[in-house]
Write a structure and sequence with these properties.
The protein is mainly alpha-helical. It is built from eleven helices and no strands.
Protein backbone atom coordinates (compact mmCIF):
# COMPACT_ATOMS: atom_id res chain seq x y z
CA UNK A 1 0.00 0.00 0.00
CA UNK A 2 2.86 2.36 0.88
CA UNK A 3 4.61 1.66 -2.43
CA UNK A 4 1.40 2.45 -4.33
CA UNK A 5 1.14 5.79 -2.54
CA UNK A 6 4.75 6.57 -3.40
CA UNK A 7 4.21 5.72 -7.07
CA UNK A 8 1.05 7.83 -7.15
CA UNK A 9 2.82 10.79 -5.53
CA UNK A 10 5.77 10.44 -7.89
CA UNK A 11 3.44 10.21 -10.91
CA UNK A 12 1.68 13.44 -9.91
CA UNK A 13 5.03 15.17 -9.51
CA UNK A 14 6.15 13.95 -12.94
CA UNK A 15 2.90 15.22 -14.49
CA UNK A 16 3.32 18.65 -12.88
CA UNK A 17 6.96 18.99 -13.90
CA UNK A 18 6.59 17.93 -17.51
CA UNK A 19 3.83 20.47 -18.09
CA UNK A 20 6.65 22.79 -19.13
CA UNK A 21 6.52 20.79 -22.37
CA UNK A 22 2.93 21.97 -22.93
CA UNK A 23 4.11 25.58 -22.75
CA UNK A 24 6.92 24.77 -25.15
CA UNK A 25 4.47 23.24 -27.65
CA UNK A 26 2.22 26.31 -27.38
CA UNK A 27 5.20 28.52 -28.11
CA UNK A 28 5.85 26.69 -31.38
CA UNK A 29 2.32 26.04 -32.62
CA UNK A 30 0.39 29.19 -31.73
CA UNK A 31 0.85 32.62 -33.25
CA UNK A 32 -0.31 34.72 -30.31
CA UNK A 33 -0.32 34.42 -26.53
CA UNK A 34 -3.78 34.05 -25.00
CA UNK A 35 -3.10 36.58 -22.25
CA UNK A 36 -6.62 36.41 -20.79
CA UNK A 37 -6.43 32.64 -20.35
CA UNK A 38 -2.93 32.78 -18.86
CA UNK A 39 -3.86 35.58 -16.44
CA UNK A 40 -6.93 33.66 -15.27
CA UNK A 41 -5.05 30.36 -15.07
CA UNK A 42 -2.09 31.81 -13.17
CA UNK A 43 -4.44 33.53 -10.73
CA UNK A 44 -6.39 30.28 -10.30
CA UNK A 45 -3.17 28.38 -9.61
CA UNK A 46 -2.12 30.97 -7.03
CA UNK A 47 -5.52 30.81 -5.35
CA UNK A 48 -5.34 27.03 -5.05
CA UNK A 49 -1.83 27.08 -3.61
CA UNK A 50 -2.38 29.96 -1.17
CA UNK A 51 -5.65 28.54 0.17
CA UNK A 52 -4.45 24.97 0.53
CA UNK A 53 -1.18 26.14 2.13
CA UNK A 54 -2.76 28.44 4.71
CA UNK A 55 -5.91 26.45 5.47
CA UNK A 56 -4.85 22.82 5.11
CA UNK A 57 -1.09 22.21 4.95
CA UNK A 58 -0.06 24.71 7.65
CA UNK A 59 -2.53 23.32 10.17
CA UNK A 60 -1.72 19.69 9.41
CA UNK A 61 1.92 20.55 10.08
CA UNK A 62 0.95 22.34 13.29
CA UNK A 63 -1.15 19.40 14.49
CA UNK A 64 1.78 17.02 13.95
CA UNK A 65 4.28 19.28 15.72
CA UNK A 66 1.97 20.17 18.62
CA UNK A 67 1.23 16.49 19.26
CA UNK A 68 4.97 15.79 19.43
CA UNK A 69 6.31 18.93 21.13
CA UNK A 70 3.41 20.52 22.97
CA UNK A 71 1.24 23.53 22.18
CA UNK A 72 3.79 26.32 22.62
CA UNK A 73 6.91 24.70 21.13
CA UNK A 74 4.92 23.04 18.31
CA UNK A 75 3.28 26.33 17.34
CA UNK A 76 6.58 28.20 17.29
CA UNK A 77 8.33 25.50 15.25
CA UNK A 78 5.44 25.49 12.75
CA UNK A 79 5.72 29.23 12.20
CA UNK A 80 9.53 29.05 12.00
CA UNK A 81 9.34 26.22 9.44
CA UNK A 82 6.77 28.12 7.37
CA UNK A 83 9.01 31.16 7.09
CA UNK A 84 12.01 28.87 6.67
CA UNK A 85 10.35 27.51 3.52
CA UNK A 86 9.82 31.06 2.28
CA UNK A 87 13.46 31.90 2.99
CA UNK A 88 14.63 28.73 1.19
CA UNK A 89 12.78 29.45 -2.07
CA UNK A 90 13.58 33.18 -1.81
CA UNK A 91 17.32 32.38 -1.64
CA UNK A 92 17.03 30.16 -4.70
CA UNK A 93 15.22 32.97 -6.50
CA UNK A 94 17.87 35.47 -5.42
CA UNK A 95 20.75 33.30 -6.65
CA UNK A 96 19.31 33.13 -10.19
CA UNK A 97 20.28 36.31 -12.11
CA UNK A 98 17.12 38.10 -13.23
CA UNK A 99 18.23 38.26 -16.86
CA UNK A 100 18.20 34.48 -17.06
CA UNK A 101 15.43 33.89 -14.55
CA UNK A 102 12.86 31.55 -16.16
CA UNK A 103 10.06 33.41 -14.43
CA UNK A 104 10.70 36.46 -16.59
CA UNK A 105 7.67 36.67 -18.85
CA UNK A 106 7.95 35.85 -22.54
CA UNK A 107 5.25 35.62 -25.20
CA UNK A 108 4.72 33.38 -28.20
CA UNK A 109 4.98 36.40 -30.50
CA UNK A 110 8.66 36.69 -29.62
CA UNK A 111 9.32 33.63 -31.78
CA UNK A 112 8.96 35.77 -34.90
CA UNK A 113 11.45 38.28 -33.53
CA UNK A 114 13.77 35.44 -32.63
CA UNK A 115 13.84 34.17 -36.22
CA UNK A 116 15.02 37.59 -37.40
CA UNK A 117 17.84 37.76 -34.88
CA UNK A 118 19.15 34.19 -34.74
CA UNK A 119 22.25 34.91 -36.82
CA UNK A 120 23.19 37.78 -34.53
CA UNK A 121 22.79 35.76 -31.35
CA UNK A 122 24.76 32.54 -31.70
CA UNK A 123 26.68 33.49 -28.58
CA UNK A 124 23.46 33.24 -26.57
CA UNK A 125 23.68 29.43 -26.55
CA UNK A 126 25.23 29.42 -23.09
CA UNK A 127 22.59 31.82 -21.85
CA UNK A 128 19.84 29.62 -23.28
CA UNK A 129 21.23 26.52 -21.60
CA UNK A 130 21.59 28.43 -18.34
CA UNK A 131 17.92 29.32 -18.58
CA UNK A 132 17.06 25.63 -18.66
CA UNK A 133 19.30 25.08 -15.63
CA UNK A 134 17.67 28.01 -13.85
CA UNK A 135 14.16 26.63 -14.27
CA UNK A 136 15.40 23.24 -13.09
CA UNK A 137 16.70 24.84 -9.89
CA UNK A 138 13.39 26.64 -9.37
CA UNK A 139 11.41 23.45 -9.97
CA UNK A 140 13.39 21.34 -7.51
CA UNK A 141 11.59 22.50 -4.32
CA UNK A 142 8.27 22.54 -6.18
CA UNK A 143 8.72 18.83 -6.86
CA UNK A 144 9.39 18.13 -3.21
CA UNK A 145 6.29 20.15 -2.25
CA UNK A 146 4.02 18.27 -4.66
CA UNK A 147 5.42 14.88 -3.68
CA UNK A 148 5.14 15.50 0.07
CA UNK A 149 1.55 16.71 -0.21
CA UNK A 150 0.51 13.81 -2.45
CA UNK A 151 2.15 11.25 -0.16
CA UNK A 152 0.32 12.67 2.86
CA UNK A 153 -3.07 13.22 1.25
CA UNK A 154 -3.67 12.03 -2.36
CA UNK A 155 -6.63 14.38 -2.92
CA UNK A 156 -4.52 17.30 -1.69
CA UNK A 157 -1.69 16.16 -3.95
CA UNK A 158 -3.92 16.19 -7.03
CA UNK A 159 -4.99 19.78 -6.40
CA UNK A 160 -1.43 20.96 -5.85
CA UNK A 161 -0.12 19.03 -8.88
CA UNK A 162 -2.75 20.66 -11.11
CA UNK A 163 -1.87 24.11 -9.72
CA UNK A 164 1.86 23.54 -10.28
CA UNK A 165 1.16 22.19 -13.78
CA UNK A 166 -0.83 25.31 -14.72
CA UNK A 167 2.00 27.49 -13.47
CA UNK A 168 4.54 25.44 -15.47
CA UNK A 169 2.80 26.04 -18.83
CA UNK A 170 3.78 29.73 -19.21
CA UNK A 171 7.11 28.77 -17.64
CA UNK A 172 7.65 26.43 -20.59
CA UNK A 173 7.03 29.33 -22.96
CA UNK A 174 9.46 31.46 -20.99
CA UNK A 175 12.18 28.84 -21.37
CA UNK A 176 11.54 27.88 -25.00
CA UNK A 177 11.61 31.42 -26.38
CA UNK A 178 15.11 32.41 -25.19
CA UNK A 179 16.61 29.00 -26.00
CA UNK A 180 15.22 29.17 -29.52
CA UNK A 181 16.39 32.77 -29.61
CA UNK A 182 19.91 31.49 -28.88
CA UNK A 183 20.03 28.40 -31.10
CA UNK A 184 17.45 28.71 -33.87
CA UNK A 185 16.60 25.08 -33.18
CA UNK A 186 12.97 24.37 -32.20
CA UNK A 187 13.71 20.77 -31.30
CA UNK A 188 16.54 21.77 -28.94
CA UNK A 189 14.39 24.49 -27.38
CA UNK A 190 11.54 22.02 -26.81
CA UNK A 191 13.67 19.28 -25.29
CA UNK A 192 15.53 21.63 -22.97
CA UNK A 193 12.23 23.08 -21.81
CA UNK A 194 10.69 19.62 -21.44
CA UNK A 195 13.65 18.12 -19.62
CA UNK A 196 14.02 21.07 -17.26
CA UNK A 197 10.64 20.05 -15.87
CA UNK A 198 12.20 16.75 -14.80
CA UNK A 199 13.75 18.67 -11.90
CA UNK A 200 10.41 18.32 -10.09
CA UNK A 201 10.33 14.51 -9.95
CA UNK A 202 14.10 14.53 -9.32
CA UNK A 203 13.52 16.88 -6.38
CA UNK A 204 10.82 14.55 -5.12
CA UNK A 205 13.05 11.49 -5.47
CA UNK A 206 16.05 13.07 -3.73
CA UNK A 207 13.85 14.45 -0.97
CA UNK A 208 12.28 11.04 -0.48
CA UNK A 209 15.60 9.19 -0.37
CA UNK A 210 17.13 11.67 2.08
CA UNK A 211 14.19 12.32 4.37
CA UNK A 212 12.09 9.16 4.46
CA UNK A 213 14.55 7.10 6.54
CA UNK A 214 14.31 9.81 9.21
CA UNK A 215 10.61 10.58 8.78
CA UNK A 216 8.88 11.14 12.11
CA UNK A 217 5.89 13.32 13.01
CA UNK A 218 8.34 16.09 13.93
CA UNK A 219 10.25 15.91 10.62
CA UNK A 220 6.95 15.66 8.74
CA UNK A 221 5.55 18.74 10.50
CA UNK A 222 8.65 20.82 9.80
CA UNK A 223 8.75 19.70 6.14
CA UNK A 224 5.03 20.25 5.60
CA UNK A 225 5.11 23.75 7.13
CA UNK A 226 8.10 24.54 4.92
CA UNK A 227 6.17 23.30 1.89
CA UNK A 228 3.34 25.70 2.78
CA UNK A 229 5.83 28.56 2.89
CA UNK A 230 7.35 27.56 -0.46
CA UNK A 231 3.95 27.52 -2.17
CA UNK A 232 2.81 30.84 -0.70
CA UNK A 233 6.04 32.49 -1.86
CA UNK A 234 5.71 31.01 -5.38
CA UNK A 235 2.16 32.34 -5.58
CA UNK A 236 2.96 35.85 -4.39
CA UNK A 237 6.37 36.27 -6.03
CA UNK A 238 5.81 34.47 -9.34
CA UNK A 239 2.23 33.65 -10.26
CA UNK A 240 0.40 36.89 -9.47
CA UNK A 241 3.15 39.19 -10.84
CA UNK A 242 3.31 37.00 -13.96
CA UNK A 243 -0.43 37.34 -14.43
CA UNK A 244 -0.11 41.13 -14.13
CA UNK A 245 2.76 41.13 -16.66
CA UNK A 246 0.39 39.52 -19.14
CA UNK A 247 -1.72 42.67 -18.76
CA UNK A 248 -4.90 41.24 -17.27
CA UNK A 249 -4.78 42.28 -13.60
CA UNK A 250 -8.49 41.92 -12.80
CA UNK A 251 -8.70 38.50 -14.45
CA UNK A 252 -5.81 37.29 -12.32
CA UNK A 253 -7.68 38.35 -9.16
CA UNK A 254 -10.87 36.67 -10.38
CA UNK A 255 -8.81 33.56 -11.02
CA UNK A 256 -7.29 33.83 -7.54
CA UNK A 257 -10.71 33.94 -5.87
CA UNK A 258 -12.01 31.14 -8.11
CA UNK A 259 -9.00 28.98 -7.25
CA UNK A 260 -9.59 29.52 -3.53
CA UNK A 261 -13.29 28.74 -3.92
CA UNK A 262 -12.70 25.54 -5.90
CA UNK A 263 -10.06 24.41 -3.40
CA UNK A 264 -12.39 25.16 -0.46
CA UNK A 265 -15.25 23.17 -1.98
CA UNK A 266 -12.99 20.24 -2.85
CA UNK A 267 -11.64 20.11 0.72
CA UNK A 268 -15.18 20.21 2.14
CA UNK A 269 -16.17 17.30 -0.09
CA UNK A 270 -13.47 15.13 1.48
CA UNK A 271 -14.43 15.82 5.12
Amino acid sequence: MISENILFAFGLTLFAGLSTGIGSILAFFTKTTNTKFLSLALGFSAGVMIYVSMIEIFFKAKDALVSEMGEIAGSWITVASFFGGILFIALIDKLIPSAENPHEIHKVEEMDEAEKKILKNKKLMKTGMFTALAIAIHNFPEGLATFTAALTDPSLGIAIAVAIAIHNIPEGIAVSVPIYYATGNKKKAFWNSFLSGLAEPVGALIGYLILMPFMTDTVFGILFAGVAGIMVFISIDELLPAAREYGEHHLSIYGLVLGMFVMAISLLMFI
